[in-house]
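User: What would this chain look like folded?
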Amino acid sequence: MTADFQRLVEALAANQVRYVIVGGVALVLHGSARTTGDLDICYARDQENLEALAAALAPLHPTLRGAPADLPFRIDAATLRSGLNFTLESKAGDVDLLGELTGVGGYEQLAPDADIMDLYGHPVRVMNLDALEAAKRAAGRLKDLADLAEILEIRRRRGERE
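Assistant: Here's the prediction, encoded as structure tokens.
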């Protein structure tokens, strides 16, 4: 199921969650033709934000993606604090919560240089191309290598450095 990006962004905005959009959606927002079915976010890990994030997602009834259906899972600040990265299914589709990204760090490192973009009427932080490139290089998966080529093409179209 492709994520309902608008529903997810609106839930996060309504609860004033501090986060940066990363991964495939960030690449698309920068102009990539790539498609993606989930929303990846890097979130601030302080108590106030963990509570806001849990409040935003709870009405969407998230479960752990790929886990047995009978495995209990509760979305609350304590659960989020005890983990770092969560791959979730929800009534609004798949969302990945990332406490940090290999090669670039966490929210505190990403937020200051993130690009602010309007998404569904909300200003959202989006991982900039330099950070996307660093994260993709560090991850090194086959799809990340393809994304690196896409980042080069976006830079070329913008007239930026190669």
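The chain is about 40% helix and 20% strand. If you want, I can go into more detail on any region.
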